[in-house]
Amino acid sequence: NGILNQSWLFIGSANGVAVLQDASGNGWSAPIINLAGISNAYNFRLLGNYQFVQKITSDNQYVYILTQDKLDRIALDSSNFTGTPTITTIANLQNLVGTTNADSFCDFIVSGDLGLLGTSAGLYRISNGSSIQNSTVNWESVVVPEQITVPCTKLITISPNGLDSGLINGG
User: Among residues 72, 71, 105, 104, which one has the least CA distance to residue 88?
Assistant: First the structure.
């Protein structure tokens, strides 16, 4: 995390999400070469109540957790990793026009204010004038000729820094 100068490791599976942290919810700030370089004071703790995690990503302010049916945002703050975290659902199948409960979320990319969401119903993006960091996030469908993105199961960015976050900078 660039703002707090801390790093956390998140892991996700069909049975939940866990975060590697110390007893105060903090990540680590010193460089590490491998996981053996992390103190024994760090342990994995379950975070929220998740199933079928598709992807976990971050923009240095929030961690985003994508499951088959929702996209959640959690502020990267140690207080969110000690007690009950403040979790904001920013997308679910009920609030995306064109999706049904039979659809599923597949992939997600965040870069600055931009969010791209691949679903079995196609590709969605953050609406003009909205931001992935807003308290209410507005989404709209991306119309692609011949609907080659239905379903949109994988998103890959090519950016100047080689990271998804670089997409807004000419990727």
Answer: 72
What's the rounded Cα separation, in Å, for the pair 80 and 154?
29
Q: Look-up: residue for tokens 């866990």?
A: 18
Distance CA 144, CA 121 (A): 12
| Residues contacting 33, CB < 8 A, separation 6+ | none
Distance, CA of 88 to CA of 11 (rounded, Å): 19
Q: State pTM to two decimals.
A: 0.90
Instruction: Round to whole Å and give the CA distance between 163 and 15.
Output: 28
| Cα 155 from chain centre | 13
Question: Quick check: bond before 151 cis, omega within 30?
Answer: yes
Give the pLDDT confidence of 96-123 residue by residue, as tens digits: 998 999 999 999 999 999 999 999 999 9
